[in-house]
Write a structure and sequence with these properties.
Blueprint: E1 8-19, E2 26-37, E3 41-45, H1 52-59, E4 67-72, E5 75-76, H2 82-92, E6 93-96, H3 108-116, H4 128-134, H5 150-163, E7 168-172, H6 180-197, E8 200-204, H7 208-212, E9 216-221, E10 224-230
Helix pairs in contact: 3-4, 3-5, 4-5, 5-6
């Protein structure tokens, strides 16, 4: 039986991340190694402060490691300049942050449309109106982020990330501000889009129901990976 080898997207090797110095130093990650391949689905589990969010940011090139290395498509991110690193994130990696991080001066539609311009190809199934409809916010297309509830803003952030049509989607507690019914609809949407477009997904979450949807579970404790399993 031949086992298909999937393309490696992101890899971190023996990564340490230290914030601050001296007595104030915080070791957010210690000797962390992890690979993300095409079409992977990975849950990062752990209590607050375990290093989940920092690891997401390292995988996506938002945080540079204090030690160790991070690759995107087998090229060290440290070998490219800041502008090129930004291009990698724009074209290959999309984020859903815990707080949404919408552009405050743009409407819901404009936030999603801004991200859609980064996509390599236009796909009508992932056009801003279609995505806002799928997350239940077509009627709020003209609203600014300040006019949306926390849950609504998070759903716009998810639509914005999906509009990029990236190879890797990184989510930090993507349903943390949503009620259970809305969260289930959003996760069903992500699942359906993954099945069709086959992007890799890494989710930092406290929610066992969210984690159960993903094929791999990576548990962190005090900045170290203490358990990894496939389901």
């Amino acid at each position: 039986m031949t086992v298909a080898v999937r393309e490696r997207l992101s890899r971190c090797r023996n990564v340490d991340v230290v914030f601050g110095a001296g007595e104030n130093a915080v070791h957010a990650l210690s000797a962390v190694s992890l690979e993300i391949h095409a079409r992977d689905s990975v849950a990062l589990l752990g209590r607050s402060g375990s290093g989940k969010t920092t690891l997401l940011h390292v995988l996506g090139g938002l945080v540079e490691p204090t030690a160790g290395s991070v690759d995107w498509r087998d090229r060290p991110l440290a070998s490219v300049d800041r502008a090129a690193r930004g291009a990698v994130r724009a074209q290959g990696i999309a984020y859903v942050f815990q707080a949404g991080n919408l552009l405050p001066h743009l409407t819901a539609f404009e936030n999603v449309a801004f991200a859609a311009r980064l996509a390599a190809e236009a796909d009508p199934r992932l056009a801003p109106p279609a995505l806002l409809e799928l997350v239940g916010l077509r009627a709020k297309a003209d609203h600014l982020p300040a006019e949306l509830s926390g849950g609504e803003a998070q759903r716009v952030a998810i639509a914005r990330a999906l509009a990029q049509q990236s190879e890797l989607l990184l989510c930090d507690e993507p349903t943390g501000h949503l009620d259970s019914d809305t969260a289930a609809r959003v996760l069903d949407l992500i699942d359906a889009l993954r099945a069709e477009f086959r992007f890799a997904l890494v989710v930092a979450t406290h929610d066992a129901d969210v984690a159960a949807r993903l094929a791999r579970a990576v548990e962190l404790e005090d900045g170290r990976i203490v358990r990894e399993e496939r389901r």
